[in-house]
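Troubleshooting entry. The earlier prediction with orotidine-5'-monophosphate gave an output that would not parse, so I re-checked the input for stray whitespace and re-submitted. Clean input:
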Amino acid sequence: MTAPFGARLADAVARRGPLCVGIDPHAELLAAWGLTDDVEGLRRFTDAVVEALAGTVAVLKPQSAFYERHGARGLLVLEDAVATCRAAGALVLLDAKRGDIGSTMAGYADVLAPGHPMQVDALTVSPYLGPGSLEPAVRTARAHGGGLFVLARTSNPDAATFQHARLADGRTVAQAVVDTVAGWNDPGWLVGDPAPDPGAHADLQGRWGAHTGSFGVVVGATLAELDVDLDGLRGPVLAPGLGAQGGTPADLRRLFGAGRAVVPTVSRDVLGTGPDVAALRGAAQRWAAELAV
Ligand SMILES: O=C(O)c1cc(=O)[nH]c(=O)n1[C@@H]1O[C@H](COP(=O)(O)O)[C@@H](O)[C@H]1O
């Protein structure tokens, strides 16, 4: 059986460092690389990023939107890239921000299961329909060693409009999302589900301490201050918003300090250095080095 995602992530980070690079083939980037905005351009862009980074970066995060906009043939490009990345030792986090009623969510979550033509290691999901709506995805993830990253406090400027709304108990929506995900990282959650063996990867837990759960949250690196309490999460934090959205390594340190399992993710700031494969690799290495300070 595949090891739990949290353990596999801790392992990948121990070997390759925590950086995640997003594969976001924007039309503007295709043009900047001298490529056509079609499936051929998409494939050449993706191949270059995968060649540059799949052997060195811990996590690659393809943005589904930019493949879907090219139709079924765009998804074939994504499918090939996912398989190549995983074969090269990178974890693949599919950024599709899925979220629907539970019965439909089960279908979306199949992307974490063996036999799916595009099986990935983890998926971004939206909690807008309520905690129960995501439970089928939690079950699938648990059964197959997959992971979920749930949008909690996102990097976009107006995120707080909804995410700072308060529940009857006084918590913000963002905090309620974090607390829900923390519950999923408790192996006792969902009695009867196959729980990860907490002893199997004890050797990997040194670096990230107890933060090796398979269920993480998204918290932007662009926040003025950390306005959610992550102490009980026991899982990873995906931190987007670096580079193009203004977030810096110093912001990451200011917001999250040390001792948390933070996966910083950068897309355009790395991708903009292409199409040269060495330049892409160099940009990712520069980010990794700055983040390590
Ligand atoms: O889930 C995400 O990855 C995500 C969450 C969030 O709060 N903000 C955010 O920018 N993202 C994604 O992260 C990527 C950021 O891209 P860059 O701004 O180019 O680094 C995009 O694919 C976004 O969809």
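This one parsed fine. The pocket of orotidine-5'-monophosphate is lined by residues 22, 24, 63, 95, 124, 154-155, 218, 220, 240-241, 243-245, 265-268 (CB under 6 Å).
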